[in-house]
Amino acid sequence: MDHQSSDHDAVSSFGAHYVRASDIGAFIYCQRSWWLMRIVGLEPDALLRRQRGTRAHQHHAWWVWMMQMLRIISVLCSVVAGIAATGLWLGWW
């Protein structure tokens, strides 16, 4: 029983850190920068630039969503217009 608790303590002290693709990319780009961020806990000074980039991506995502909605509306309008034209041609109206 004591053996199991020591194994559990070793695992919990190690922590569950997953290696992400961004970690690998950061390490390959600059090992010192990766060490400062991951081990020391320092953040880069480019916080303002990162926030602007996040806002720009959110703005772009909104426009992509809006264009998708407009495309769906235009397809629906085209279908309705096609049905109406067919109805007029066949004399339904």
Describe the 3D structure.
The chain is built from 4 helices and no strands. It is mostly helical and 93 residues long. It folds into 2 domains: 1-44, no CATH class; 47-93. The longest helix is centred in the last third of the chain and has 44 residues, at 47-90.
Number of helices: 4
What is the helix content? over 70%
Please state the average pLDDT score.
83
Q: How far from one another are the termini?
A: 85 Å
H/E topology pattern? HHHH
Features:
4 helices; 82% helix; mainly alpha; 93 residues; 0% strand; 2 domains
SSE blueprint and pairings:
Elements: H1 2-14, H2 21-29, H3 31-40, H4 47-90
What would a concise description of this structure say?
The chain is an all-alpha fold.
